Each structure stands twice: as C-alpha cells, then as structure tokens.
Amino acid sequence: MKNKLKILFMGTPDFALGVLKKLYQLDFNLCGVVTAPDKKAGRGKKINESAVKKWVISKDLLMLQPTNLKSQEFNDQLSNLNPDIIVVVAFRMLPKKVWNFPIYGTINLHASLLPDYRGAAPINWAIINGETTTGVTTFFIDEDIDTGKIINYKEIKINDDENVANLHDKLMHAGADLVVDTLVEISNESYTTTDQKLSNSDKKAPKLDKNTTKINWNQDQQSLYNFIRGLSPFPSSWCYLNDHQLSCKIYKVSKTAIPSKHKSGTIIIKEKNIYVSTMDFSLKLEEIQLQNRKRMSAKDIINGKLIKDGDILY
C-alpha cells in the first residue's frame, strides 16, 4: 500500500468482530475501536458487553464507548485520534460531523447487494424472501441510511437448507475480505465508485420485532420454510399453541411431500414425528421451544407429551 491508513473501527456484534479480527491479523493500522455502551440485560439485569468489547479488552487497542456521538467529548476524542478513514460494520447511524471527519471518508460494510435490503436485518430478509443469492457491499457513508456510493461488492450463494446463522458467518468472512480489498484500493487511490440507483421497488430489510417474527400458518410450505430458517436461531420465529395458552418458538423444520388435509397450523403426530399443516404440503417440525422450557427436539417433545395430535399452532 502507498499509505498505511490510520483506521478507526466502529462496530458492536459478532458480524463486526469478524471484520475487526481480520484487520488486526493483517496488521492494519488501527488507531482505535468504537463500540456500543454496555447494557443491562436479562432478568438479573447483568451487564452485557458487546462481542467487540470482549475481544478488544484482550488486545492492546484503544476502545471508546460513547453514549452520544454528537457530544463535544467524543468529537474531541475523534480529533485527537485523527483517523485517515473510519470503517463501520453493524454500528449505529453516525452524525455528519463524524462520518465527514476523516480525509478518506467513512466506509460501511453492509450484508446485502445494495441497493436491495437496505436496513437493519438484511441477512434475515434475504432468506425469508427466498433469495438464492445475496452478498456484501462496501460503500461510502452519506446523509441517509445505506445509500452512499458503492465501492465494492461480492455475491454469495444462499443454499436451500441454510439458516440465518450459517449465512451470517459466510457473509462475515466474505465481508472481512471485501473490507481489506476496499482499504487497499483506497490507500492506493485505485478505487472507483458507483451511484446507487434507488427506487421504491428495492427490497427492504426493516428491523425485526415481535410482530414481524410471528408465524402466519396460512401460507404455502416453501414460504413458511423460508420464514422459519430466515429467523433461526436469531431472533427466532414464534407462534401460539392452542388458543393463546402457550407461545412457542420454531427453530428448525423440514419440507415434506405430504399433502395437507387439515386446517393450516394443525399438528399431526405420526410415527413419532410432528407435522404441521400448511396451505399445500405439511412441514415436519424438528426443533421447538415451548414457553418456559428449553429448546427441544420433536422426539423429546413427543416423549414428554408436551404437544398432542390435533393441537393448533397459530
């Protein structure tokens, strides 16, 4: 590289950590790491540190956890670090004063082929929508979310049996390589950019919540199969069992060639297997978590007599 760019890295979850580790292993000039403040989580309200923080603590790297990116304190810290470029992976929206600070700008890695699947959950939505390809994209951050000039991208195949955890890891590793390539090109001033052609028809990737992760069993088998694997294991799809008596999370299903003969959502137990009716063919339930219980196999659910033939999921 012509210039050894001074890099400030910003990221919080495992996806970001995969990229950070790659930059560290390749001896990029990391002047600091910015990650989210600690949060209290769970019933015991234990302090939850980000994946990035836990790793950075073990390394000789400067770490910042600002609560307000617009604060004078953080802007002073940014000025003192004086990075040539900021690399953002799975972080929060930055104020213009921050992303516009470095001489080489601020780049972001996004887990989709932009402009499709702009938003908070691109990996989930690509599987939910039955895509067979997705990818990773590097781009320069601008005023809006995921709309800046594209620098590089790489396509990744989505296998039919892949869940979000598997695809997450594939995209993380591909994304780390893409960030490295992008930084080398920027340092050598050999990169080119492409404007995103944005339209209302672009596929979106909004944040997932309790409403968007609830299973609607009145769909065909393939749509339900995609929905469940696109949310497994995180944040997980869910539904009610028997008139709101219990809720349950569905982690794994498999497709069958068995035509559905019952109302959608009806449980059929046959030969120690659990099937559920859809609008066309039955799905075989493989891994389930009933309310207040641990994640269990269908076999254990049957042995424990926790679900019976004729129960309804909805």
Written overview of the protein:
With 314 residues, the protein is of the alpha/beta class. The protein folds into 2 domains: 6-187, Formyl transferase, N-terminal domain (Rossmann fold, 3-Layer(aba) Sandwich), CATH 3.40.50; 221-303, Methionyl-tRNA Fmet Formyltransferase, Chain A, domain 2. It contains 8 helices and 15 strands. The protein has helices spanning 14-25, 51-57, 72-81, 96-99, 122-128, 164-187, 221-229, 298-303, and strands at 6-11, 29-34, 39-41, 46-48, 63-64, 85-89, 106-110, 133-140, 150-157, 237-241, 246-259, 267-270, 273-276, 281-290, 296-297. The strands form 3 sheets. It has a 7-stranded mixed sheet with strand order 5-2-1-6-7-8-9. Strands 10, 11, 12, 13, 14 and 15 form a 6-stranded antiparallel sheet that branches. A two-stranded antiparallel sheet has the order 3-4. The radius of gyration is 22 Å and the shape is elongated. The mean pLDDT is 95.
Describe the SSE topology.
Blueprint: E1 6-11, H1 14-25, E2 29-34, E3 39-41, E4 46-48, H2 51-57, E5 63-64, H3 72-81, E6 85-89, H4 96-99, E7 106-110, H5 122-128, E8 133-140, E9 150-157, H6 164-187, H7 221-229, E10 237-241, E11 246-259, E12 267-270, E13 273-276, E14 281-290, E15 296-297, H8 298-303
Helix pairs in contact: 1-6
Report the portion of residues in β strands.
Answer: 25-35%
The N- and C-terminal alpha carbons lie at a distance of 57 Å
In CATH, the architecture of the largest domain is: 3-Layer(aba) Sandwich
The CATH topology annotation of the largest domain reads as: Rossmann fold
Indicate the structural class.
alpha/beta
Question: What is the number of strand segments?
Answer: 15
Q: Catalogue the unreliable spans.
A: none
Q: Supply the number of helical segments.
A: 8
Overall geometry: elongated
> Helical percent range?
25-40%
Name of the CATH first level of the largest domain: Alpha Beta
CATH superfamily of the largest domain: Formyl transferase, N-terminal domain
